[in-house]
Design a protein that fits this description.
By secondary structure, this protein is an alpha+beta fold. Helix content is about 20%, strand content about 50%.
Length: about 130
């Protein structure tokens, strides 16, 4: 989205991410009516900051676990109107669990279970003399 900034202001938005992944954040400083004198952003989770403060541009932040993520951006307008426009875009790409390793674990567990049940199901045969 985009927004309008007058004077010196700060904004915050929070959102919930489903699990570990990567956030791609783009912060834009538009030239209307005049570019902002400063525009910065910090990303954080319940575990602390996700990375260093960033200015206008694009940055990637790694999220270790799901939960609430917070974006805080702040800036200072300039010019005769003391106003400016900013844009913020946040994309989340979840980390995918590798399927081949998961399948191998599942199959080995099922094989072990079948082997154990087969051994328990055998009835000892009496010795013939």
């Amino acid at each position: 989205g985009s927004g309008f900034m007058r004077g010196q202001q700060s904004f915050e938005d929070t959102f919930n991410v489903s699990g570990p992944g990567v956030l791609t954040v783009t912060l834009s400083n538009f030239d209307w009516p005049q570019p902002l004198a400063s525009l910065d952003l910090v990303m954080s989770s319940q575990h602390g900051l996700l990375g260093p403060e960033m200015g206008a541009g694009t940055a990637m932040f790694t999220v270790a676990s799901g939960g609430i993520v917070s974006a805080q951006w702040f800036g200072t307008a300039q010019g005769p109107l003391d106003a400016g426009v900013f844009g913020l875009k946040v994309d989340f790409a979840p980390t995918v669990v590798p399927l081949p390793a998961s399948i191998a674990l599942l199959l080995s567990g099922l094989a072990l279970l079948a082997f154990t049940r087969r051994e328990q199901g055998r009835v000892p045969q009496p010795a013939v003399e």
